[in-house]
Design a protein that fits this description.
The complex is a heterodimer of chains A (307) and B (316).
Chain A (H helix, E strand, L loop, with lengths): L4 H45 L5 H5 L12 H32 L4 H14 L3 H15 L6 H25 L3 H9 L4 H30 L2 H5 L33 H9 L4 H35 L3
Helix pairs in contact in A: 1-11, 3-6, 3-8, 3-10, 4-6, 5-6, 6-8, 7-8, 8-11, 10-11
Chain B lengths: L24 H42 L2 H6 L15 H32 L2 H16 L2 H19 L8 H25 L3 H9 L4 H12 L1 H17 L2 H6 L17 H10 L7 H30 L5
Helix pairs in contact in B: 1-12, 3-6, 3-9, 4-6, 5-6, 6-9, 7-8, 9-12, 11-12
The chains are: A mainly alpha (307), B mainly alpha (316).
Organism (chain B): Aromatoleum diolicum
Membrane topology (chain B): Multi-pass membrane protein
Function (chain B): Part of the binding-protein-dependent transport system for phosphate; probably responsible for the translocation of the substrate across the membrane.
């Protein structure tokens, strides 16, 4: 190499470093765009809906007069639907995850189940709505009820729960199992006393993320034919007479937060757009709180557990 | 072990195996029963798939008894609720493709840039802060994005493009693209981070800069993962419902022009479900035919993604 080349090489290096810098800035801007969109969305809804965020907004039924309309039936409906969703998806998903990780032998049936779970995660949510319309609403005769909606969302988040359970179980080192088996524990004893407790934080994270997805799902619930104008509450689950528990509410008509928001969004009047903003703000707050909890649990578990 | 003293050791009774160690039929039965139960839970997912296929195919079958498949695929009008009904899927398909295309033009460059930045450029502290933020962005309900498209993005676009209608595929597509950025970026980043460090070190040792390493070493090595991230993004965009239902309009329109309003397949299903069509009518069956088309599209995309991941997987 002769010394005359050195400035040329330096120039090349400098040019390449400049490209590095340009890309780093581009990457940062792209990230910023994502974060700013989120902030814009959040602030815009808070700003537009602020006047409507009064206590009455939570205790009023929807109304034809925008200023008196509230989200009482919507948040109660969301709560009850989420209850059914959790009760159906969590046991099924956790059990399926345990089966695939701890019990299943490597054979064709297991392969089919695994591929199937992966594929289900890619099915558009509205297709779950069609499934529910054909099977739950008309096939089983559950009608357009809280039960149908809860089960639909349960099936929808089942892959999320299964995958989270499997990942949590897979992170438990083999020697824990071997120690338990070495003491003569049966497979179920190992599972119940060791696998499930140790993977609980991971499972919980997955369940919360699944639920936060379910609470914002609109399309499948519209598809099963939920009404958008509900000015009554489902029957109370607790009654004054024996057996004190009533399951009438499962068969009740209902509306949920995202549907209430959709209904207000699709009206042309400015006042209803304000309601939509307020409802959207509450909805985003709910999903944010759930996601933040999940992130927090995951962060702490990752920090605290040392096998 | 309750022998009180060593004196009695000589006079031990003959060795009896504790009955706690005896083989128990009940315990065996319980183990088998639990395994069956867990297997049952695992097969629910298979039943779900079977249910989806059965519902879509059987209702569509009734639909195709009335509407010939050929006219479903070639008719350029979709007017199932009119007096003179036409059932051509093409207008809905055009709407779905146009909005998805706009979304991808937004999501793929931005998502890839973010993935490269997070995986190759950002310091770990930045990454730890930003990744949860992206996850939050992916967790926002799509109806909220729809509201955002309708009340913020489209009015902004109307300032830029005078005469733009209040519902259009451009605004819906852009917001949909932003909504799927987190999916694309997080999967693509995972793929890039899985590339072993020694490949980067080799490139750095040869004098490669960060950008050169990222574009010429890491990205080719992670290509299969990145492509399957794109495919997942496409499949999300095709199946996305609420953003387009709110912001793209509800009129089937056979056009590929994103400045116009049009209806997508998923938005049609929502529109019919909001109305009050009797169970078993042709309108009711038509949403299942629409759903079947949607399902076939996303299924084949997922299959392509699966094959890509398999075929181009490079083992290190």
């Amino acid at each position: 190499m002769n010394s005359a080349d050195i400035p040329v090489i330096r120039k090349i290096i400098q040019r390449n470093k400049r490209w590095d810098l340009i890309f780093a800035i581009a990457g940062f801007l792209a990230l910023l765009l994502g974060v700013l969109t989120f902030l814009a969305l959040f602030v815009q809804m808070a700003y537009t809906g602020w006047e409507r965020l009064t206590p009455e907004f939570f205790t009023n039924f929807p109304s034809r007069r925008a200023a008196q309309a509230g989200i009482l039936s919507a948040w109660v409906g969301s709560l009850l639907v989420m209850l059914v969703t959790a009760l159906s998806a969590v046991p099924l998903g956790v059990a399926a995850g345990i089966y695939l990780e701890e019990y299943a032998s490597k054979n064709l049936v297991t392969d089919i189940i695994e591929i199937n779970v992966t594929n289900l995660a890619g099915v558009p949510s509205i297709v779950y709505g069609l499934l529910a319309l054909g099977v739950f609403v008309y096939g089983f005769g559950f009608g357009q009820s809280i039960l149908s909606a809860g089960l639909t969302l349960g099936l929808l988040i089942l892959p999320v729960v299964i995958v989270a359970t499997r990942e949590a179980i897979r992170s438990i080192p083999l020697h824990i199992r071997e120690a338990a088996y070495g003491l003569g524990a049966t497979r179920w004893q190992v599972t119940r006393d060791h696998i499930v407790p140790y993977s609980l934080p991971g499972i919980l994270t997955g369940v919360i993320i699944g639920m936060s997805r379910a609470i914002g799902e609109t399309a499948p619930i519209i598809t099963i034919g939920a009404l958008t104008f509900i000015a009554f509450l489902p029957a109370s689950p607790v009654g004054p007479e024996f057996p004190w528990l009533s399951f009438e509410w499962l068969k009740s008509g209902f509306t949920v937060m995202p549907i209430q928001m959709f209904n207000w969004t699709s009206r042309p009047e400015e006042a209803f757009q304000q309601n939509a903003a307020a409802a959207g703000f509450i909805l985003v707050l709910m999903t944010l709180a759930m996601n933040a909890t999940a992130i927090w649990i995951r962060y702490h578990v990752r920090k605290d557990i040392k096998w | 072990m309750n022998t009180p003293s060593s004196a009695s050791a000589a006079s031990l009774p003959p060795l009896v195996v504790s009955d706690r160690l005896a083989k128990k039929a009940l315990r065996h039965f319980k183990e088998r029963f639990i395994e069956m139960l867990l297997f049952g839970a695992a097969s629910v997912s298979v039943l779900t798939t079977v249910g989806i296929i059965w519902v879509l195919v059987s209702e569509s079958y009734h639909f195709f008894e009335t509407v010939p498949l050929w006219s479903f695929l070639t008719d350029t009008m979709w007017t199932p609720l009119f007096a003179d009904p036409h059932y051509g899927i093409l207008p809905l398909l055009a709407g779905t493709l146009t909005t998805s295309l706009v979304a991808l033009i937004v999501a793929i460059p931005l998502g890839t840039t973010i993935a490269i930045y997070l995986s190759e450029f950002a310091r770990p502290a930045v990454r730890e802060i930003v990744k949860p933020f992206l996850e939050l962005l992916g967790g926002i309900p799509t109806i909220v994005y729809g509201y955002f498209a309708l009340t913020v993005v489209i009015p902004m676009l109307q300032l830029l493009i005078p005469g733009l209608s209040g519902f259009n595929m451009l605004g819906a597509g852009i917001v949909m693209g932003i909504a799927i950025i987190p999916y694309v970026s997080s999967l693509a980043e995972d793929a890039m981070r899985a590339v072993p460090m020694n490949m980067r070190e080799g490139s750095y040792a040869m004098g490669g800069t960060k950008l050169q390493t990222a574009l010429r070493v890491v990205m080719p090595a992670a290509l299969s993962g990145i492509l399957s991230a794109y495919i997942l993004g496409i499949s999300r965009a095709v199946g996305e419902t609420m953003i387009v239902a709110v912001a793209a309009g509800m009129q089937p329109n056979f056009t590929l022009n994103p400045l116009e309003s049009a209806q997508t397949i998923s938005a049609y299903i929502v529109q019919v479900a909001l109305g009050d069509l009797p169970h078993g009518s042709i309108g009711y069956q038509s949403i299942f035919a629409a759903g079947l088309s949607l399902m076939l599209m996303t299924l084949s995309l997922n299959l392509v993604g699966h094959v890509l991941r398999r075929r181009y997987r490079e083992a290190y």
